Amino acid sequence: MKQINPFTGIVRCGYCNCAMKPSFTKKGKTDKYRYLICDADSKRVKHVCPLRSIPLNELERIVLDDIKVMLSKPEVFFGILSEAKGVDKNGCNLTAEQVSKSFADLNAVWDLMYPVEKYKFIQTVIKNITVFRDKIKIEYNQKALCGLAKE
User: Within a domain: residue 91?
Assistant: First the structure.
């Protein structure tokens, strides 16, 4: 059975700017550990990238927590939009009250969503994730966030 990977095409190594691809290892018959590996480094005989792999479960937890914080705090949403040249320049003329209400609805159903729905959401609102050993940078798709808030 093929696993759905919500991070396909959006996670990059912060050291060599290479795509991170999914992999896994098994321990025993039932324990499966999923992780992402630096694609360029996986093809080399000698590993040179400081970030060889990251646990996929941990990345999922961090990204989902970040999304939940963004959804529950309109000021974070507006901060993300302002980083991309200002709220008005993105054509997103929403009030804090509108954003708060629309994201409160989504935040309320987040835990009830199927993994496929969460993953589609992640692919829609996240433009890029850059992973380092000690930090993760998440770049949001401002137009998608604005469209989501307007719905």
Answer: yes
Total-model pTM: 0.74
Nearest partner of 94 among 60, 30, 143, 42, judged by Cα = 143
pLDDT digits (tens, 9 = 90+) for 9-54: 899 999 888 888 888 888 888 777 888 888 876 666 676 788 878 8
**Kind of pairing between the strands at 53-55 and 126-131:** unpaired
Q: Looking at the domain assignment, is residue 5 inside a domain?
A: no
How many domains does one find in the chain? 1
Long-range contacts of 82-86 (CB under 8 A, 24+ apart): 84/142
Q: Locate 111 and state its tokens.
A: 């835990």
81 inside domain: yes
